[in-house]
Each structure stands twice: as C-alpha cells, then as structure tokens.
Task: structure prediction
Amino acid sequence: MLLWDQAIEILRESIFAYAQACNGNLGAGILAVTFLARLALLPLGIRMARAAADQQRAMARLQPALDALRKAHKSDAKRLADETSRLFAREGVSPFSLGGCLGSLAQIPVFVALYSSVRQAAAVGGRFLWIPNLAKPDWPMAIVATIFTLLATATGAVAPSQNRSLMLAISAAVTIAALAKMAAGVGLYWALSSLFGAAQGWIVQRGLRTSAA
Result:
C-alpha cells in the first residue's frame, strides 16, 4: 500500500504544482495533470479499442456459422463445444481477446490513482471559471461532464446500433447521478477524461471506415 499511496501523493502534488504555476488556480492544475495522464495513455487506449472492434467484427462474421452449430448440436453440448473450437481455430479467431483484457486492466490502476488524487486535491476548494467552489457539487459542471460522457459513449460504442440508445441513457443517468454528489473538481477530471474518450473513439472509428473503404 505504501507504493500506491506514494503514487497518489505524487499526482496530488503535481496538481498543486501546476496550480501554483497557474496563479494558484486549482482547476487549471486538475486539468493539466488529467490532460497529461490521459495523453500518455491515449496510444494504449486506441490500441485496445481497435482490438475490441476487430474482435467484434470477427465474431459478427462467424455468427451465422455459430448459430448453425448451435442448431445442429443443440442436444449434444460436448459436440457443440468441440465444433465451436474447431471453427474458431479454422478461422484464426479467438473467442476471448487476452491482450485486450490485459491492456484494459493495466490502465485501471492509473485511472483509480488519478481519480483519488483529484478527489483529494479538489477538497481544498477554490473558484474556477463559473464554479464558486471546486470542493462542492456544481450542476452546470455535472451537465457538461454528462454531455462529454455521452459523446465518448456514442463514438466508442461497439454494441449493435439498436442497443446504443440504451447505452447512452444508462451512461447519462449514471454520470449525472454520480456528479450531482461529487466535488466540481472531480467533474473537471471526468469531463476532460470523457473528452479524451470521445477523441479515442473517433480515431478508432475513422480507422475502421478507412480500412473498410
């Protein structure tokens, strides 16, 4: 736990250092550290998103064959499992993307540490833009962060189109409910992170359209 606490401490002190460089503006410090951290993780995030998109396209291509196997061997579970494994091996497709999972898991500690450091720094408070106190919830900030979250969800969604409306609704509800009770400083972090998520999704989708053309 000592190493974990030190990582959070370094990030928190970095926020204060950038705030001092911006005339003591804590909001600017939060945005600066969040920007740099998300920028450093962006290449890995794009790689993982592309891997997830490729996995989804491969599974969609095999879906008719998988459905046929389920229909042909619905009463023989062992035969179905064997034939399914042969299909994946023959097509060179893995039902699970181990590399993608490991890459996503590798990012989680960074996001958690960054969130923890922002939450602790935001407790100091202070004015930023229209926000009177970064230590307290701010509805306009929550709405801005929700809009950016919806944008990130829309550009990064890999679910079938008929499920996107549900994904957007759930994303909006969770974000607005959470940020309505959190410090506005956390809302700044959330909004900028979501903006990076939207940029990442746009880059991946553009690459997919280019490769399909």
About this structure: The longest helix spans residues 26-72. Residues 2-212 form one domain. The mean pLDDT is 81. Residues 39 and 196 are 8 Å apart (CA to CA).
